[in-house]
Amino acid sequence: MKKIIVPILLLCCQWQFSCGIVGIEVSTKYSPDWTSLESRPLPDWFDNVKIGVFIHWGVYSVPSVTSEWFWFDWKDPFHNKELHEEILSFMKTNYKPGFSYQDFAREFTAEFFNATEWAEIIGKSGAKYVVLTSKHHDGYALWP
């Protein structure tokens, strides 16, 4: 996994600096309430760049049968019964009994990941910044 994440992080850092975007240093301490959090300044560039790319990538891409809500839809029969049944059928057809969501992590190798290709696509999109969601709601982190 480290072989995957390091190029992604380098790509994001390179992209940030090649676009002339730099972070702001903030020494203010914030408290865990909305008023405090809403008082933090936005970087000057943020309102001007207009287009950015947020990358959501995780173990749910291994089965690639639904969205990043795969685990939720697999385990919750009440939210979307039709989708739940579709996932159950997919799992029964493609995985052994007892296979868990966490087991997908071993198969998440990003075999076809190509940082150069991603950079070219993002560059052509006109995006001025990239954010990689490094830890999603399922708890899987894209770092060792």
Q: How would you describe what is shown here?
A:
- The protein is mainly alpha-helical.
- The chain has one domain (1-20, 63-144).
- 42% of the residues lie in helices and 7% in strands.
- It has seven helices and two strands, in the order H-H-H-E-H-H-H-H-E.
- One of its GO terms (cellular component) is lysosome.
- Belongs to the glycosyl hydrolase 29 family.
Topology of helices and strands:
Elements: H1 2-18, H2 34-38, H3 46-49, E1 52-56, H4 70-75, H5 81-94, H6 104-107, H7 115-125, E2 129-133
Parallel strand pairs: 1-2
InterPro entries: FUC_metazoa-typ, GH, Glyco_hydro_29, Glyco_hydro_29_N
Keywords: Glycosidase, Hydrolase, Signal
Pfam family, one: Alpha_L_fucos
